[in-house]
Design goal:
Elements: E1 8-12, H1 17-28, E2 32-37, H2 40-44, H3 46-49, E3 55-58, H4 64-78, E4 83-86, H5 101-126, E5 131-136, H6 149-169, E6 173-180, H7 186-191, H8 194-203, H9 212-223, E7 234-237
Helix pairs in contact: 1-9, 4-5, 5-6
The structure holds NADPH dihydro-nicotinamide-adenine-dinucleotide phosphate.
NADPH dihydro-nicotinamide-adenine-dinucleotide phosphate binds near residues 17, 19, 89, 186 and 188.
GO molecular function: oxidoreductase activity, acting on the CH-OH group of donors, NAD or NADP as acceptor
Family: Belongs to the short-chain dehydrogenases/reductases (SDR) family.
Protein name: Oxidoreductase
Length: about 250
Amino acid sequence: MKRLAEHRAIVTGGASGIGAAIARRFVAEGARVAVMDRDKEAMALIDDRVPGVDLALVADVTEPAAVDEAFEELDRRWGGLDVAVNNAGISVPGAFADLPLADWERVLRVNLTGVFLVAQRAVRRMRGRGGVVINIASVSGMVGMPNYSAYNVSKAGVIELTRTLALELAPEIRVNAICPGYVLTPMQEAEYSPAALAECARKVPLGRLGRPAEIAALAAYLASDEAEFATGQTFVIDGGETAGGLASA
Ligand code: NDP
């Protein structure tokens, strides 16, 4: 069953990791897919990474003019939009006491203001016709985690923006957030040593890191009409990582 036939979907940060997996899954489900990403080298290879991708939009989600230009291209090519996946994100760890203001602002700008800019332009095009917004937040926006204050705050902001937009835009537009736990992607490989990744996997009740395709499967469900009663929610997919909470566990 091609659940996303007739759907036009944009995926930000779709040149790598979770975003590329979502873009691939959406193509497989029959959607017309546009990838927006700032990574020019990765975008040069987008046809290999996301075979069947319809539109490659090189743009930084933090730059309003670039985002506007990308959406204008989308208007020319598609004349509308049905699904927007706000996935582009960065992680900059650092002990709070020494965190440079520039790092704090950079993370909030990409992870939160980037979602504001793209979601706003997307919903303007969905008004009057309906649509779906999916924000990739994180379990880090739901529980505390040392040394990730900017990241955690940005993702908590994405969750709250999701709830607020869902109420503001219902019943026309559905807005949901996905909160992945550890997923093995270039972002994680850049940040953690293989030993640290193995340690993370050991602590996850299901005993491993997530796969980008598993997050993509949830995104495909939320984008589809099968999820037409779901809005304003955060869908956690973390191998059980946040199920507990006891210090003794
Ligand atoms: P990756 O770094 O593998 O992919 C992210 C992509 O987004 C990259 O191509 C990156 O380009 C691009 N990007 C970053 N900033 C911008 C920007 N300003 N404008 C446009 N594109 C941008 O990350 P993941 O696939 O791991 O993460 C995807 C999302 O999932 C993020 O929001 C992340 O926070 C979230 N997430 C990831 C988890 C994980 O364990 N991997 C867990 C929970 C949430 P560039 O290479 O130039 O930075």
